[in-house]
Amino acid sequence: MATPFKKDVMFYRFSAYGFLKNLRFFEPFLILLLRDTGQSFTQIGLLYAIRDVATNVLEIPTGVFADIFGRRKSMVMAFAAYIVAFIIFYAFSNFYLFALAMIFFGAGEAFRSGTHKALILEYLKQNNLTHLKVDYYGYTRSASQMGSAVNSLIAAAIVFYTGNYRYMFLAATIPYVLDLFNLMTYPKWLDGELSPDHSRANLSAQTKETLAAFGAMFKHADALRAIGNSAGFMGFFKSTKDYLQPILQAYALALPLFVSLDDTRRSAVLIGVVYFVIYLLTSYASRNAARFSRRFGNLGRAINGTFLLGGIFLLIAGLAAQEHWAIISIVVFLGFYVLQNLRRPMNVGYISDQIASKVMASGLSVESQLTTILMAVLAPILGALADAFGVGAALAIFGGGMIALLAVVKVRESR
User: Fold this and answer.
1) Where are the beta strands (DSSP E) in 184-322?
2) pLDDT, tens digit, for every residue of 234-247?
3) What is the pTM of this model?
4) How far apart are CA 345 and CA 342, in angstroms?
5) Domain that holds residue 343
6) Is the distance from CB of 144 to CB of 117 less than 8 angstroms?
7) Across 251-264, average pLDDT
């Protein structure tokens, strides 16, 4: 299918960023890795919450940093923090040092969140392509999901051949160093309007101006609902998505395959293959997000409909896991992943219609901030529920909560 825009050098560099950024080899195994070190689901939830609180605390200052000093510098800071986190996870194994690693990881998320999207939107603005933002972002996000698909196979191979989850953190530093150099050499004009005067007085004035525009977003009901809808879905999705891992592990160990191997290697094969399929489908979904949204008549209707469907999927996945119908739970989880990647380009396009381009980095950071607030609250609750009642029951409860949340974050559906 032909793209509605020209694929120039920056298109491929934006795509390369997403591809390399998603080579986080540990992600398909993160909960299993933490469980392997003796952490309970509650402790895992607390680690996730520490990461999200660190991200949340730093969201506003890092958004202002991006608006004042430039989005490219913000991205460089992000990847430096990620690499430090990976090294700590590789070298140590106790809860408190994992918590420190999560703080560095959260710093990376805060510097990165919304910033690269703002770089892309600045590129579209300068090239008179803003009317194609859903298409363009969908295609570049497709490369990110393809990176996740490749990531799954490489991660499974690392676990299979080493029998150890830890090496995935060391391996992840390689693509992140490559991406760091890619970002450092982005054109300067992608930073947008920056003042050459970095005096203390000017920085103070710039900060006040950015925060004023930032605060104005909270007076706009449509912008708030758009951000809340996106953040709500992502909060539930990111809090629950890794719980597919123990479901896959239990299913893999129940199959009469590779019985001569240890449990870690046996589960790695199925987990790698399933995540590979998931990310192939989510890559296709991202590429076709604009076409999908047009079937609904407008973005608002598509965003509301997919939010409701996501809650239903999560509810079914939990009930199926509780009844040990692993295949149904895995398939429905796959649908949940696809929905998130159909929604993401639509959400970015919808939100960008509500926010001034000058503070787009800060505006998308608001969305990320609300997401991390939700995740910081939801992750420990989900972990405690999983320890008390089982993973399936915890997911089903969260599915019901997500459906109820739609009443609060439903966006305007008019054209």
Assistant:
1) none
2) 999 999 999 999 99
3) 0.79
4) 7
5) 10-190+197-409
6) no
7) 78
